[in-house]
What we know:
Helix content is 43%, strand content 21%. By secondary structure, it is α/β, with parallel strands linked by helices.
Amino acid sequence: MPNAKTVSGYVGDTRFTVQMDLSDAAEASVQLRGHVAIVTAGGAGLGRHIANAIAARGAHVVIGDLDPDVGQSVVGQIERDGGSATFVAVDVTDDGQLSQAVATARQLGRIRALVNNAGGWSASGLQYPDSPPMDWSRVLDLNLRAPMLAAQLCIEAMKADGGGAIVNIASSGGLGPDPYGSPEYGAAKAGLIRFTSSLRGLDTTHGIRVSCVVAHWIGLARAQAAFGQLSAEEQVRSGGLVDPEVVAAEVVHLIEDDESTGHIVAIRPRQAPYRLDPAAMDPYWR
C-alpha cells in the first residue's frame, strides 16, 4: 500500500498490526505548507506527537503549553528535523493568555489549523461529587470552555484569511451511558463532541471545517504504566492502547481533508479510525 503507515503492538500476548493509508493526506499537504497551526498542550504527551506530525507537513507549529521546558524541547526537536515552530507560554483557561497566544500565532502567518488538545482531570485527585465546585469547574473550563474560546478566536482570524480547520481532541469518556471515573471530565468531553457537530455548517458560512477525534485509552507514558499493572486477561478485556501516532496521523488527515466537516472520528486499538454514525447512537435520529 503506497504511503502507508504500519502500527503494531501487543495486547496481552496477542500481537496486532494496523495499516493506515495516508495517500490522500500526502496529496493534500500543500494546504498546511507555509501556514501556521496551533496545538494547545503541544509540549508533551499526545500534543507533542500531533505537533511533530503537523510540522512534518510543512506548517509552522505554534506550541501552546504551560511548561516552557517541554515547549522549547519540542520546538528544538522540530527544528532539528527540518521544520519550524514557536513556543508560546499559555494557560488556556486564562482568557487573556489564550487571546494573546492566538494573536502571536497570527503575527507569524495565516492560521490554517487549530488543534484543541489541552485537557485533563482534576489536579486535586478528587472527582465530582467529592471535589469542591472550584475544582470541577476548572475541569469544565479546561476541557470545554477553553476549546470553545480558542475556536472562537481562531474562527475570526481564519475567516479573514480565507478559511481553515479546527480539530477538537475529545475522549471515549464522553460517550456512552456507563459510569465514569470523572463525571466532570466526561461531561466536558461529551459537550466538546456536540460542540463539534453543532458547527458543521461553518464550512459554508466561514470556510472553516471543524472535526473531532474520540480516542480510546491512548498509549502515553501514564497509560502504559497503568496498563502494565493489569493482568493479561484485564489487558485483553480493556481492548489495549491506541498508538498516539495513529491519533496524530488522523488529526493531520482531518485538517487536510476538505470533506471532513462536523466529522466525529473514533479511534480504538487495533482498528483503523472510523466515523461515528449518529444513527447508531440514537435509532430515532433523523
